[in-house]
Design brief:
This protein is mainly β. The chain folds into two domains: about 120 residues, Macroglobulin (MG2) domain (Immunoglobulin-like), CATH 2.60.40.1930; about 70 residues, Carboxypeptidase-like, regulatory domain (Immunoglobulin-like, Sandwich), CATH 2.60.40. The chain contains no helices and 14 strands. The strands form four sheets. It has a four-stranded antiparallel β-sheet with strand order 4-3-6-7, with no helix packed on it. Strand 9 and strand 10 form a beta hairpin. The chain is globular. The N and C termini lie far apart (about 80 Å). The relative contact order is 0.17.
């Protein structure tokens, strides 16, 4: 008698693990401002996750937005599917813990637009991110970053006045709008010692950051 091949029922399939990443989150937003983030999801077995839905939840576990993964793979990856999401900042100031959640897919459900065999279930996963809401920026701070020895501009230097961030241009200049207050200014660049300076911002201002080259360790 000929033996017929049988396959395991969908209910016995082990769910594939998924992982979530979130990036392009603004360093700070003002109350009620619209902003965008980028969400990426990858299956451990590199399943095609086109149209896989996800939800965005605020600090009270209330869903504030949702979306679905596009058919676009993030450049340089083999299975990271991405989507851009527009969100609205909370009405009050503070740091809020939000999250992206990927619901589990039941056995045999498949995914719209997925390749054959995508009926394998996928496990739920999530990733958190912070939304920092600050008062309306009132002051323009201009930072000039230069090499201490040569006084030449340093382009691409990273400038931080928490929670505000910027990068210097080809002239070694970065400009940030910040709220009035007291900050610690940090300017860093590859091969240079990080520059730090306390700054009191009460109006538009310009400050200069002179960075020294890191000393080269002596070899024995």
């Amino acid at each position: 008698m000929e033996q017929l091949e049988t396959s395991a029922p969908a209910s016995t399939l082990t769910p594939h693990a998924t992982s979530v990443v979130v990036w392009d989150v603004p360093s700070a937003v003002v109350p009620g401002e619209r902003f965008r983030i980028r969400v990426g999801v990858k299956c451990a077995d590199e399943c095609r996750l086109v149209n896989h839905e996800f939800g965005i939840y605020d600090d009270r576990a209330t869903q504030v937005a949702g979306g679905a993964l596009s058919g676009q793979l993030w450049p340089g990856t083999t299975g990271l599917y991405v989507a851009d999401v527009e969100l609205e900042a909370p009405a009050g100031e503070g740091l809020f813990a939000w999250s992206v959640r990927i619901p589990s897919t039941p056995p045999g459900a498949g995914l719209p637009g997925a390749e054959p065999g995508a009926g394998i279930p996928h496990a739920e996963s999530s990733a958190g991110f912070g939304v920092r809401v600050v008062s309306q920026p009132e002051c323009l701070v201009t930072i000039e970053a230069v090499d201490e020895a040569t006084q030449t501009p340093l382009s691409g230097a990273r400038v931080v006045m928490h929670p505000y961030r910027a990068v210097t241009d080809e002239r070694g200049v970065a400009m940030m709008r910040v709220a009035k207050g007291t900050y610690r200014l940090f300017v860093s660049q590859t091969r240079y010692v990080t520059f730090g300076l306390p700054v009191d911002v009460a109006a538009d201002m310009t400050t200069r950051a002179e960075l020294s080259v890191e000393p080269v360790p002596e070899r024995n």
